[in-house]
Design brief:
Length: 312
Amino acid sequence: MLERSACAVDNVRDQLMGIDLAYLQVAAALPAAEADALRMQHTAWAEEIAAMCDVESMAASSRQIDDSRSQCLGNHFKDWREWLKEYHRRTGRFDVFSRSIMQWNRDRHYEVRVYYPQLSNPVGSGERAFNDWAATEAKDYAGELDTLELARAQGVSDQDRKADLHSMLSREYRIESVGNDLIAVIWDDYAYGAGAAHGIPSTRGTLFSLAAARPLGAGDVFAANADWPQRATDLCLPQLAAQIPDTETGFTPGTVRDVIAEFTSWSFGPVGATITFDVYTIASYASGVNECMLPYEVLRPMLNPALSLGHG
């Protein structure tokens, strides 16, 4: 619907006015400092959509736009409305605000859009360390565009831009407070190179300790000598077998254990931990992302007893 409604200059103006109204409604409910931060991000978004979707050229040449620009506009309108809606939320005892890193280059045909959380009015070294860590993680990820060789070294023609979607590096986050001193963050990443058949999604989890003022590692979370990778593998194999067809290749106890042993594949919620198996890690792309959920009552014998996870 958004793409179809973006097919004429007047409708583009209507969409932009509607999003400006949504932005003003969100900003009006924020403290002055947060409203100012949102204003800068909203301005950056307006510049981004004008550059990436070539709005000025569209308006000068015709009242109708081609399919590639329609899709560009539709995606940007949809994404920004959703982001504005989630800009501020109360999570546990924290007020969490979103920040963004946006980079785009129409000539090299790429876009970077990275969102990350910040705690409002951080109190103490732990909360300040969380904000610093989240911002650094976002900056480092945004800097991977050239390392991943997604962006073309030379400029591309208008015909190339019509033929291929632009390269994209994006990151969104999910956050929930797991305990008084713990914050669990899940990063949902997506990388796409222009001309590829599809992009690659991936998920990483982090458990941040405010008391320690740093992300926790496997050695902090699991009990000594618990052999948690093997025990979790034994628990996850039946779940994965129900998700992945028997004809799949690469789905073996060894490949499953390799993913489980990577602590970043774990994310911790209020009732248990979820282990994410990204595409291609244990099966084909067609099988999608697979997950294994382990409740805390099952995990408890493996966990560090000094760490409070879940309800007790």
